[in-house]
Amino acid sequence: MSAMALYTPWRMDYITGAIDNKESGCFMCRAVNSNDELVVYRGNYCIVIMNKYPYNRGHLLIAPKRHVPGIVDLTDEELMECAMLIKASTCALSELLKPVDFNIGVNVGRIAGAGYEEHVHFHIVPRWNGDVNSIPVKYTLDAVINDIKELIPELSKLMRRCMSNDGGGPEVHTNKG
């Protein structure tokens, strides 16, 4: 079997380290303090941001609004809202994109693998059968044409519903087999 390459321009600047120098400072703080088009949801203490350099379609970041480096620096309110947003994110992504499972995690510190270690954030990465960072292992490829920004309006609406107290969000499914 021969090797196959897939062009992924949305990750190239990130992979090569050639991210626009105009974007110095904390991208999460910029998102908190502006009308950033990648913000999916704004809570009282935290925000949900569509990852500009996603591992997979629908990759979200959840971050406190305060600029803090680690989980131990979060207040109880911030930590609770992060947990609620993780739940709501999986709820909304389940309905919109129908992934089989999720990778959910946080890297605290450079040695632990944090790409941006100064502002703690959680990753929610939808996963499908056969994907390897969105590249199926077989010769056939699922073409995903939509830009990540096209997902945001519907995802925002679903996040609001999933965060509401009426329990109107869909049940999060996982692969049982």
From TrEMBL:
GO molecular function: catalytic activity; nucleotide binding
InterPro entries for the chain: AP-4-A_phosphorylase, FHIT, HIT-like, HIT-like_sf
Motif placement: Histidine triad motif: 119-123
Superkingdom of the organism of origin: Archaea
Boundaries of every HIT domain copy: 27-134
Keyword set, alphabetical order: Nucleotide-binding
Name of the protein this chain belongs to: Histidine triad (HIT) protein
Protein species of origin: Caldivirga maquilingensis (strain ATCC 700844 / DSM 13496 / JCM 10307 / IC-167)
Higher taxonomy: Archaea, Thermoproteota, Thermoprotei, Thermoproteales, Thermoproteaceae
